[in-house]
Design a protein that fits this description.
Elements: H1 2-33, H2 35-69, H3 78-83, H4 86-97, H5 99-112
Helix pairs in contact: 1-2, 1-4, 2-5
């Protein structure tokens, strides 16, 4: 079960990072065009951010449940093993510091007149 959860977390992290790269690649062109093209991209980015945060929270809950169900003194908690995984760490860091999400925030602030 732990291996399956670790593999699932790595797979989710890889999919997130690829999607982030794809959206970042579209960013300059969409911003340059402005109008509805940019609005559509920002809508996709906002949806993507919500989905990514929800997926990370889901994975965290699964890890915690697995750790509680399988308390074995010799094995470290699954969440701490994932924290050492470079792909999952990249996912976590990107959720916190993504240029894509920083630009989304700027767009949302500008759109709201802040």
């Amino acid at each position: 079960r732990r291996e399956r959860l670790r593999d699932e977390a790595q797979s989710s992290a890889c999919a997130f990072l690829q999607r982030e790269r794809d959206l970042l690649a579209r960013l300059p062109q969409s911003i340059g065009r402005g109008g509805s093209g940019a609005d559509k991209l920002w809508s996709e980015v906002a949806d993507f951010k919500r989905e990514a945060l929800a997926e990370r929270a889901r994975l965290q809950r699964l890890c915690q449940a697995s750790d509680i169900a399988g308390r074995r003194g010799a094995e470290p908690p699954l969440e701490s093993l994932l924290a050492e995984d470079p792909t999952v760490t990249a996912f976590d860091l990107s959720l916190q510091h993504s240029l894509l999400f920083e630009e989304l925030l700027r767009y949302q602030e500008a759109a709201s007149g802040a």
